[in-house]
Amino acid sequence: MGHSEAASVRHSPSTWQQPFPAPASAERSALTRKVADRVGNQGSGRILVGIDGFTAAGKTSFGHELAARIADSGRPVLRATLDDFKNPWKDRHLYDRESGEGYYRNAYDYASAKRLLLDPARSPEAASCALCSIDPLTQETHAADTTPLAPDSVLIVDGVFAFRPEIDAYWDVRIWMDVNAELSVRRGAERDQDWAGPDAEAIHRDRYLVAERLYLDEVDPLPRMDVIVDNTDFARPRLIKG
Question: pTM score, two decimals?
């Protein structure tokens, strides 16, 4: 990528942080390096990368790994997640966000994601963007907390429904983390035990999975992917495409 010194990775100020992934296996490191090269080959200007996949497919972890690899090559990286651009809880009485279809249609605030994050990142003249609109846990707004954008910044955004029509046109590189539905439900329920308790599996099966299937039916994002990673086994992910 033409740089030698490592650059920084800037993260969202949100308290909703997935843990950083454990040190990667040799196979995983090799795959991440390949994908990082693919991103870098997009050129020297700003690059926007979207990472999607079922809930608990490993999107955030892969985003962190990819960011570290790209920053090591000298490109400044910004990390964001679409969960930091959801509609506020206080308005949830105004719409259904509990059912699968309600979650798909109403949970995310794409107008804020575009205004605060994606439009500035896409505009060469913009010098900063916000990596978080509303903290999903504290409900505090971070719209005014801006992060500098360099001319060669790489923005890596993970989240479900990243390739919906509202924001699909922004991405230079589209990545899909592939796991089957049952593994998504199992991993998600294990991860969310602490806040969802005994309801965790039902929330994943009846809300998130229903929403995902609606998304796949309506939007059919997979044919547009530049990279598809089979992330069934974290230690041995496989590059299916890209």
Answer: 0.94
